[in-house]
Each structure stands twice: as C-alpha cells, then as structure tokens.
From TrEMBL:
Chain ranges passing through the membrane: 34-52, 64-84, 90-108, 117-134
Highest taxon in the source lineage: Eukaryota
Listed InterPro entries: ACER
Organism: Balaeniceps rex
Gene Ontology cellular component list: endoplasmic reticulum membrane
Function: Hydrolyzes the sphingolipid ceramide into sphingosine and free fatty acid.
Family: Belongs to the alkaline ceramidase family.
GO terms (BP aspect): ceramide metabolic process; phytosphingosine biosynthetic process; sphingosine biosynthetic process
Protein's name according to its UniProt entry: Alkaline ceramidase
UniProt: Zn(2+) binding residues: 81
Enzyme Commission designation: 3.5.1.-
Length: 135
C-alpha cells in the first residue's frame, strides 16, 4: 500500500484552498480527513437534540434558529473535511458567516422590551451575509 500522501481517495484530488495537518485518506478511502470529519459530530448531534427540545418546549424561534445554524455549520464542515473539495469548503465557511449573523440578531433580541422585529438590523445582517457570499 502506498504512503498516505500518495493515496487517491474516493473524492479525487483536493481542490480546496486549505488543507489541515491531517494526512489525506489515511484512515478511510471515503473520508479525506477522518478525524476532522468525525469531530464535527459534536456540531451536528447535540444541536439537533437542542432544536427538537426547543420545538417541543415551545421556546422562541430564535433558539431554534441558533440550533439549526450550529447544525448547518457542523454538516458543512463534515462535508468539507470528508471531501476537501472547493465547493464543500464554501459549504463549510459560509454557514459560519450566516450563523454569526443569526447569533448577533439573537443577542440583540435578549435586550428588547416589546414584541417587535428589528428590521434595520435584519436588513444590515442579510446585506452583510450577501456581500460576503458574493466576495
């Protein structure tokens, strides 16, 4: 068997602009960075459970949004580290940007006094997300 650095994996050669310190396809033919991929389970499973509990308990939608954002970050990172493809790198990085915007909005919602929606903040955060996505 050739050294790990010379192995061709299921997803082909990496096209991402980043590669982490883990050897590619060293553990599995199907997963480029095995341990980085598996470690993302902590960003997938607990937030799914939190989202389910939030829905069952009838809590505010912002908590559900926050849990779903964490799940999206975990799934995107899972896909990126599994494939090391540029498209999956975007699926890893962009949900982090969007999640931060959701978290900023959730943080602002903690300090409001009445049941309103802050449309200027929403517009600013959506515009920021859109601009970062385009760039």
């Amino acid at each position: 068997m050739p050294p790990a650095a010379d192995r061709e994996g299921y997803w082909g050669p990496p096209t991402s602009t980043l590669e982490w310190c883990e050897e590619n396809y060293a553990v599995s033919y199907y997963i480029a960075e095995f341990w980085n991929t598996v470690s993302n389970l902590i960003f997938i499973l607990p937030p799914i459970y939190g989202a389910i509990q939030t829905y069952k308990d009838g809590l505010e939608k912002r908590y559900l949004a926050a849990y779903l954002c964490l799940t999206a970050v975990g799934l995107g990172s899972w896909c990126f580290h599994m494939t090391l493809k540029y498209e999956m790198q975007l699926l890893d990085e962009l949900p982090m940007i969007y999640s931060c915007c959701v978290f900023v909005y959730c943080l602002y919602e903690c300090f409001k006094y009445k049941n309103t929606v802050n449309y200027p903040l929403l517009f600013m955060l959506i515009t920021y997300s859109f601009v970062v996505s385009i760039v």
